[in-house]
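Table S2 (text version). Query chain:
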Amino acid sequence: MSIRAVKHVNKDENNRIEFLLVDWDYIDGSDYIAKLFSEEYGFAVGKKFDGIWYSIIRIHLGICEYELLWHEDIGNEIYCLNQTEEENDLLQHRLERILDILNARIEKAAKQ
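Corresponding structure-token output:
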């Protein structure tokens, strides 16, 4: 199993670019992704908001601000609050690195 991100345009949210995390559908999956962003890039992690069927964690570094969303119907995703092309490209680049780390940790744990 390899976790990957799929870029998606959410037309219900003003064409917001979102990155859906495939094969990472865990209710606390966003917590771990936020932790990796903090470890790898120094992102500050805000409080987790728990709704009935979803949770949101906001993380930020300087002017970059992302939301990690878990929803029971779609799983985990991440998106920029500032939806510029530059911000989305930077998030995609950072997320690729985070998923490389995550996949490596999963592979290492499976071998033990």
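Notes on Table S2: The longest helix spans residues 85-111. The beta strands are 4-10, 16-22, 44-50, 54-61, 64-71, 75-80.
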